[in-house]
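Worked example 3. Consider a protein that binds iron/sulfur cluster.
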Amino acid sequence: MKQNKILISACLLGENVKYDGGHNDIRADSFIQKLLMENLLVSICPEVEGGLETPRIPVELIDNKAINQEGEDKTSFFEFGAQKALELCKQHDIKYAILKFRSPSCGSDIIYDGTFTHTFTSGDGITAKLLKENGIKVYSEKNLEELKKILIN
Ligand code: SF4
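Given these inputs, the predicted complex is written out as structure tokens:
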């Protein structure tokens, strides 16, 4: 596969960077295994890169602000992490990203709705939005097949 590197959410590669100290490991997926074997994945957790600790209080987006469950505004951390992700994309000439579904940072098209009730709404996480605005195609673990079709043709 001749391909530029692809950005991926660190939690999808088993890194314990989720708000609860866990991960969302998808390394059992054969496509991800292929990308790993070809050294094509560049991982980042925008929230950790942005300066937030793990574990941390859950955050959801409310009126485009990243507000944690105790009402604290963490938007500046989220925006800083998003900038770090964009820098990484520019550094590696990255055109595609695989970002965790529904996250207030990484989520694409669908995110948690800000009520902390596991309810979803349409919208992008802060990192996903910035990457899209800069021409990077964002996929998630839910539509990997679509990316696979584009890369392996
Ligand atoms: S910010 Fe992204 S990479 Fe970090 S834990 Fe959340 S979904 Fe995973």
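Take a moment to read the result before moving on. The chain has one domain: 6-152. DSSP finds five helices and eight strands in the chain.
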